Every structure is written in structure tokens, then in C-alpha cells.
Amino acid sequence: MTEGAAASRSLGANASRGALVTMGGQGVRLAIQLAAIVVLARLLTPADYGLIAMVTAIIGIGEIFRDFGLSSAAIQAKSVSRQQKDNLFWLNTGIGLVLTGLACALSGVVASIYGDERLQMLTIVLSATFLLNGISTQFRADLTRKLLFVRLALVDSVAQAVGFVAGVAFALLGFGYWALAAQQLAISLIALVMLLVLTGWFPGWMHRRTPMREFLGFGANLLGSQLLGYAAANVDSVVIGSRFGATALGFYNRAFQLMMLPLTQLNAPSTRVALPVLSRLQDQRERFNAFISFGQSILLMAVSFTFAFLGAQASSVVELALGRQWLEVVPLFQVLLVAGFFQASSYAVYWVMLSKGLARANLHYALATRPAMIVLIILGANWGVGGVAVAYTASIVLIWPVGLLWIARVSDAPAKAMFLNGVRMLLVFGFGAGVSWASTLALPADAIVLRLVVGLSSLLGWVVLIALIWPRFRVDLVTLAQARRHFGRRAASADPAASADPAASADPAAPTEPDASAGPAASADPVTSATRADADASEPVAAREPS
After folding, report:
1. 34, 257 contact by CB (below 8 A)
2. Which of 309, 298, 272, 28 is closest to 164 using CA atoms?
């Protein structure tokens, strides 16, 4: 067996193991976040969440500058020297320090935008996350590049757990919105400490003669697209907070968080695995296209099923998770779930752009779509908070096909197959949501658990039925169930002898953990989880709400 075939086989094995293990690791983080949502929603008010969302919607833009696209540049690059890693570390740290000082200086401006003096001190406290996350950036990127998913999972899970404890403790002591600030600071601090211990390298001083132009060029283009994406993704919070107040924003915030929670849990591991693997396959068209189509199908299958169930049983889900006092978020939640599906459909576009080094094309794409999204959301505010939710959703729906057309023009990615994947899932699970909803119409409104069980069972029955009568969808299910074997066959096809060569398991270009029993979770960046800034640029625009 050739050396290339061995590396190909090992990369496939590492990718499939990373994806499967990562999803398992996400379960821990999801449980912690669900616990935080359930507990804190009963200890805090909508206004508390609204105040945090007001601050993060504005200062969160600093997270984009803090990263400067350099984490993605490091992950996407074919090689990164020790000297380049040192320089990248100091660049991110320096930017984080400057942003902390700038946020403190402008804290009064943030408070004046909303007319609430409480936001000044809140802005100053949360600005510390810029420095903490700036220091963490390249440690996290290094683990991602090396496919060391177990360590990332450990960092994110422990940090989330400590943040949860800190938030609950502050809430029980009566600190109100400060509990959410404490949660975010604790997550950033613990994540930084653990990354320092687990990464296995400590940066030296800057190296002035080391070439950095490639990284800075990639980062600058990515920064531009991320700024536009951030503005489009957070204008709804600014509009709602300034026009309708903290309480209205608090309800919208919780609806968005409920939508983003499963989406982030599913997207984070898939993106963390997809980007480094696709970057290595960028010059192998057939394998690249097979991997991205496969990855998108798995992600959409999981997202579509989850969102169909949540949308159909939204009232029961909200009452169980947040309590009856939050039922006002139900219609907002259902509308935003539609946006979540199309956002998940667009993630593969993002994977193509970054893994193939198309940062400039990504910037042009953002310039063509994000301003229109901002205008649409501002116009939607004329119809209240619900109008903002509908406008946000409509803009996401419209952007999806535009993104596919864009990558078809600038790359050889399988845009048509990606489009058909999305349409197939939309049809199957859109009707499935209707079946689940109809199955519980006759049940008492207060029989929450029964409604959830019946709704879930009917959705599962619908999926089985469609799999029996639609061969293409049946192939999707079989592929999902045989993920590891799929990668093994794909790699083995590169060399008929590969399957018989035990030495194929070694891939020096892709170091792995001795114990791959877990995987990466979503970024533990507090401002990433509290804003839709692409702070950890290894994943697309993330949820902005505190968990």
C-alpha cells in the first residue's frame, strides 16, 4: 500500500472517529446547557436576559476583531511553523488586550444607546472576555488543527459546568443579571487555564522575520465577511432593545437561545471535524465532494428531526424548559426554527469557503447578502418583535440558495447535490412536523410529558414510513447509521490493498488522542455563546445568547 493511501485511510478513520466521538461529547455539554436554561430561567427575569443581550449585541463585535480570522487561517493552512504559531498567539493576545481597553472606554456610549446606566459597568466587566479569549484563540486552533478532539471536549465541558455553577450561585444570592455575566467570565477563565495545560506548547516571543502575509491576508478577508455577518445577525437585538425595551428583548432572546441550543450542539462538532479534514482534501475533488455531501446530510438529518419535533411541540417544550411565565416566546420560537433549518443548510457553504481558502470570495458573498438582510430586519421591526423574527427568518431563507450559487461559481464543490440534500430534508421533516403536531391535538394541554412522547413517536413513525417508500431517503438513513464504514470504504477505494494493510492506521499528519472517547464541543467563548459573533472562527456565526 502506498504512503498516500495509508494517509488517506487514516484521515478517513480519524474524521469518522472524530465526528462520532464528538457528537457523544456534545451530549455532556448539551445536558449542562439544558440544566442552565431550565434553572436560570426560573431564577431570573426576561429583563435580566435582555440587559445581557443588549451589551453583547454591541460589544460582541469586538470578538470578531479579537479573532481577526486568524484561528481559521491557522486551521486552513497546509502547514504552520512553530514561529508562525508564536506570532499568531501574540497577535490575538494583543488585539484582545486593546479591545478590552477600548470597550471600557466606550462603556458609557453603550449605556447611552439604550438609555440604561446599568449597562456601563456590565460592559466593563464583560470586556475582560476579550483578553481571556484572545489568549485562548491559538491554543484552541492548534488542538482543532491536530484533530485532538478529546481535549477540546474536556475543556468545553468542564468550562460549561463551572460556568453553570457560578451562574446559579450568583442568581441564588440575588445578583440578577450579574449571574449571567459571572457565568460567561467563569467559562472563559476555566477554558483558558485548561487549554494552557492540555495544548502541549507554550508560545515564545514574536519572530519578526517569519512570513505572516498569507495568514494576515486570509484573516483580513475573513474579518470583513464576519463583520458583515455579525451586523446582520445582531441588528435584531439592537432594534428590539432600543425600540421595545429589555423585557421584549428578553423574550426574543430566550426564543433564539432555545432554537440555537440544539443547532450549536450539532453544528459545532460537525464544523470542528469538517474544516481541518476538508482543508486536507481541498486538492482531491472527488473525496472533498463526497465528504462535504456526506457531512451536510448527517447534519441536516439531525437538525431537521430535532427542529420538526420542537416546532410541532413548541408549547410543551417551552413550558417544560422555561416555565409557564415564558409561553410568550412560543410563536417566536416556531418562526426562528425555520431560520435555524436554513442556517444549518448554509453551514456547508461556509465549510467550502474556508477549507478551500476562498476568504475573498466569502467577503464578496457577504457584501452581496448581509446589507440586504440588515435592511429587511429593520423594516420588520415596524410590525413589532414578531415582525423582526419573521424578517430574520425570511432573510436566512433567501440567503441559502444565493450561497449555493456563489460556491458553484467560485469552486468545484457539489452545489447541486447540497441543494437537493436540503430540499429532501425540508420536505420529509416539514410534513413530519405537521404529523407530530396533529397527533397531539386531542390531548390535554397540561399533559406535557404525554404530548411530548406521542409527538416524538408519531414523528419517528413518519420517518420510518418515508424511508420505506422513498429509496433516496432510505439511503440517507443507512449512510447515517454506517458513518464509520462509509469513511472506511471511501478511504479504501484509493488503494485496493489499503483494507488489508494494518499499517494504514498511522497518519503522521493527523495526530490523534490516545483515548478518543470524546470530542469537541462548541466554543466555550462566553461572548461567542452570548453573541452571534464568529469568535471561534472554526464555526459559523454562533448563538449570541447566554446559556
Report:
1. no
2. 28
Q: Which amino acid is at 111?
A: A
The answer to whether 125 and 95 have CB atoms below 8 angstroms apart is no
Q: Domain span at residue 266?
A: 1-24+248-495
Cell numbers placing 262 = 440544539
Q: Are residues 321 and 430 in the same domain?
A: yes
One domain, residues 358 and 431? yes
Q: Which three cell numbers stand for residue 88?
A: 499568531
Same domain (yes/no): 470, 388: yes
Question: Grid coordinates representing 500?
Answer: 488489508
Burial 429-451, CB ≥16 within 10 A → b, else e: beebbebbbebbeeeeeeebeeb
In a domain, 216, yes or no: no
Say whether both 73 and 20 belong to one domain. no
User: Which has more confidence, 234 or 249?
Assistant: 249
pLDDT of residue 7: 46
Q: Could you tell me the CA-to-CA distances from 60 to 63, 69, 246, 442, 543 in Å, in that order?
A: 5, 15, 17, 45, 11
Reported as a single tens digit per residue, the pLDDT across 432-469 is: 999 999 999 999 888 899 999 999 999 999 999 999 99
Question: Distance of CA 202 to CAs 79, 121, 383, Å?
Answer: 18, 34, 53
CA separation, residue 348 to residues 86, 214, 222, 271, 421 (Å): 31, 24, 16, 9, 11
Give 249-306 pLDDT, tens digit per residue: 888 888 888 888 888 777 766 776 777 777 777 777 888 888 888 888 888 888 999 9
**Which amino acid, residue 301?**
M
In a domain, 38, yes or no: no
Same domain? 19 vs 61: no
Contacts of 338 (CB under 8 A, 6+ apart): 311, 393, 397
User: What would the grid cell of residue 308 be?
Assistant: 420538526
Burial class for 151, CB neighbours closer than 10 Å (0-12, 13-18, 19+): buried
Q: Quick one: cell of 360?
A: 475573498
Closest alpha carbon to 68 in 240, 222, 235: 222
Q: 526, 54 in Cβ contact below 8 A? A: no
What is the helix (H) or strand (E) element at residue 244, kind and residue range? helix 213-280
User: Residue 364 burial by CB count (10 A; 0-12/13-18/19+): exposed, middle or buried?
Assistant: middle
Please name the residues in contact with 388: beta carbons below 8 A apart, sequence gap of 6 or more: 236, 239, 240, 252, 377, 380, 381
Residue 221 within a domain: no
How many domains would you assign to the chain?
2
Secondary structure (3-state) at 253: helix
